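Hey L., structure's done. Input below.
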Amino acid sequence: MLSLEEAQSRAQDLVNAARKAGADAADAIYACNASTNVSVRLGALEDVERSEGEEIGLRVFIGQRSASISASDMNPATLDTLVERCIAMAREAPEDPYAGLAPEDRLLKRRPPSLDLTDEEEPEPAALRERALMAEDAARGVPGITNSEGGGASSGRSQVALATSHGFAGAYAGTSHSTWASVLAGSGSDMQRDHASHSARHLRDLDHADAVGARAGQRAVARLNPVKVGSGVMPVIFDPRIGSSLIGHLVSGIVGPAIARRSSFLLDQLGKAIFDSSITIIDDPLRPRGLRSRPFDGEGLPVERRALIEDGVLTGWLLDSASARQLGLEPTGHASRGGSGAPGASITNVHMEAGTTSPGDLRYDVKRGIYVTELIGMGVNPVTGDYSRGASGFLIENGAVMNAVSEITIAGNLKDMFRNMTPASDLYFRYAMNVPTLRIDGMTVAGG
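Output:
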C-alpha cells in the first residue's frame, strides 16, 4: 500500500503524463483497501484472511470525447501504457456534450477538513480471533440457540487520492473495525436464523463482542414458532436496522443520472412535499468518524451537510458534474467514482431526524399490524415506485408485539409510503444510514 503522499503523487504524475500525451484534460484516482478478517465456528478457528488490493484509474478528455481505463499494476511502464491506451480510446469515443471535469471555480481550494477517520490501533489476528470467539460464545450462550453459522471480526484501512489537470489534488484515509455473529435456534423445519453486527471507524467505538453476540442469539430465539397472518391492509412498523432501506429508495430516486434519464418515480417532485412535514432527512459527509464521511467528493468538489428532505419537502437532486450539465444545474458535491468509468452520484452519512413519539406509543393504537425486522428480495420498481418485498418479523395486536411471523409480503407504492410515514424518537447512529423506528399506515400485507 502506498502512503497517502505517494498515492497523491502517483495520481498527479498520471494526469501530467496524459496531458503531455495530448489529452485536453484528465483526472486520476487511486484507491487501496487492505483488511484482515478472522472467522470462527462452534468455538474453533475457521478462517484467517488478509486481503490487499490497489487500483489506479485514468480518465482523459479530447474535446468532447472521453475514455477511462484502470490498472492494478503500479509499475511506471504499465502506467505509461495505460496513458497511451486511454488516449487512443478517447480519440475513437463518441462526443458527449455533458462530459468534462468539474467546474474549476467550484473545486475545493482550502485545506480538507479533518474528520478523524483513521485509528492508529490495528489489532493482530490473535486479537481478532479472541473477539470473534467472544461474539459467537455469547450468541451460543443464549437459551434456545442450537447451532451456529459462526462469528467474525475484522479490521481494515482504505486510502483514496484524486488529482485533476485543472488544479485539484487531495487524499484521505479511513479505518474500519467490525464484529459479527450469526446463529440458529430451534431444530428441523422450525429452525430460525438471525445475526447481529457492528462496525466503527475506531476500535474504541465498537460494541463489545459479548453485546453483539447476545443480540444475535436473542434475535434468533425470538423468531421461533412463527404464526400465520391473514392478508389485509394494516400498519407496518419497520425496525431501525431495516428501515434505512426505505431511505435508500428515496436516494435512488433523486440521483442526477436517474433524473437526467427521466427514470425516477420522483421525477416531478422537486420542491414538493413528499413526506409529512415532521420529517427531515440529512446527508452529512462531514460527520467525525462517520462510516461514509469524506473531505471532498469524487470530482474534487467540497462537501457539506445538507437536508435532502426538509420539513417533508424534497429540496434538490444529488448531482455529479455531467448530470448537472444535462439538467442545467450546478453539481452538489455528491460525485462518486471507482477506478474506471465516469463519476456517478451518491450519498454519504444519511439519517432521518427523530420524531417525538416513543416506539411504544407509535404502535399504541395499532389493532393489528406487522413489526418488520427482515426484508427479502428486491421487488421495487424505481420508475413507478411500486414496492413489494418478502418480510418477516412480529405480529402486533392491540399495540403489543406478539408472535413471530414469516413468509409474508408487504406491498405499496413508495410515494404513498413516504406520505404515510411516521418516525419514532429512537434515533441512534450505528450505520452509514440511520433511521428511527418507522410506522407506515395503509400497507398491503399478504400472509404466508
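Residues 226-448 form one domain. The mean pLDDT is 95.

-- N.
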